[in-house]
Amino acid sequence: MDRLDKSVLTALVKNFNGGPVGVSTLAMAVGEEVETIESLAEPFLVRMGFLARTPRGRVATASAWMHLGIKPPLSVQAANDPNLFDIDPDIAQ
């Protein structure tokens, strides 16, 4: 992870509470061009599982929060919980 990646991730979590935030706002927060964020930082952060691109904007995943050493809010933890909507087999019968 280079300086730009860390700056984007830190701004997303600390300045925008994990998002969602538009890419132009995020670019202004880190002092970079939108194209730089989209072509350099975003692909890496998405591949690493730290950033999700949604219709409402960029969102930090629970992994991103933990990577920065910050406990994610409950809403982020729940959204990233793979078992959240699983049905208990004992209840389903």
Automatic annotation (TrEMBL):
This is Unannotated protein. Gene3D superfamilies: Winged helix-like DNA-binding domain superfamily/Winged helix DNA-binding domain (1.10.10.10). InterPro entries: DNA_helicase_Holl-junc_RuvB (IPR004605), RuvB_wg_C (IPR008823), WH-like_DNA-bd_sf (IPR036388), WH_DNA-bd_sf (IPR036390). Pfam families: WHD_RuvB. One of its GO terms (molecular function) is DNA binding. The lineage of its organism: unclassified sequences, metagenomes, ecological metagenomes. PANTHER family: HOLLIDAY JUNCTION BRANCH MIGRATION COMPLEX SUBUNIT RUVB, PTHR42848. Residues 1-68 form the RuvB winged helix C-terminal domain. GO terms for biological process: DNA recombination; DNA repair.
